[in-house]
Write a structure and sequence with these properties.
With 403 residues, the chain is an alpha/beta fold. It contains 16 helices and 17 strands.
Amino acid sequence: MAAATAQGDSFWDEIDHLTTKLQRENRTKQTVNPGSHIGGIKDAPYKQTTRSEVIKKIEFFIEGLLTKLAQNNLPDIQFKNRRSWANMSFIDDVGVEMNGNATETTIKLNSNYSIQKYAKTLKILRIAHGLLQENVYSTKREIYYNDVPFFGNQATVDHIVDDISCMFNLPRHALHILACSKGYVSGKLSFREHDGNLIDCNVNPNGILIPTHIHGIYNICSDAKAILVVEKDATYQRLLDDDILEKLYPIIMITGKGFPDLNTRVLVKRLWESLEIPVLALVDTDPHGVEIMCVYRFGSMSQSYDTDNLAVPSMRWIGVLPSDLERLSINKEAQIPLTEQDRKKISQLLDRPYVKAHASIQQELLVLLNTGHKAEMQALSTISTGFITDVFLPIKIKHGKWI
């Protein structure tokens, strides 16, 4: 039926070995830490703080502000600083996490500099409280367009919602505020949305848009051998055109269309928890691609308060590695000289705690720096049309060539 199957029973051996290894490690973590979020129940929706608990958190917070006002004190609002690596810790099997004693930024009621953010924060809290009471959801985009003159821009809403989530130590969706999805998923996968609607990714050969209410999906079903996370939409579509879902049957393929949105990251994590199969990252050979792989794998500084629900530390980087370009003797004309900004980004990545903890990733970044060239995945097509699907990925999978 499929090319991968036709290559013999041994094709998936390395994947099967990795699956067994990861599942064994997973069982060990659950034994050591029974409360671990890893290994979620396949037929249950996403676990979260109850709606009534979140309502109480908001009400308690507002009561605190009002109490200070009643005492003739101007109440400040403190947010944890999500923009400093000094506030972060790295745990290899968890990812980037915010320190409990992280420094904070203060929003003052009597400051011309911060009064607008203070007012916008209270308004978003009021909106979230109303959504929770009515048990309905809204997107950040809907909130912004509900009062464009007041909020000014979409980024302001995004940032404040994340600050509030971090302050209450809650995932964003627990406020009943969702983000619009941009990522796509295809392959051997089906699940039910929060309203019971059955989604079968096999039906649409081009994949489906990842649901906005991704936290509510349940009955995740698949017998896929692996999940392939592809950086860019153009490569994702090209792989579909090259029949990758048949040639590497059975797999699931996902793209976040560049830097991934939260819904894409949540889906990758949910699938790993439910299916416990290897997650492989295919990204461009440039510092931006490496950073995207690291965000999926280790989490991000801005979302460090919710790393447990987003990062997949068991992810493997299958390509395109900088060493792959050298090994395959990719024509220099298909490569692009590194810019000063690229070199700066590589230096920043080398200084990240998760890169320091992984010598193999460090080595690949040094190869990239030393060769002085980067390349998009399409550069492999200079060898032959369909090279990624027909040769590169099958060989990498069969021989376990990932890091």
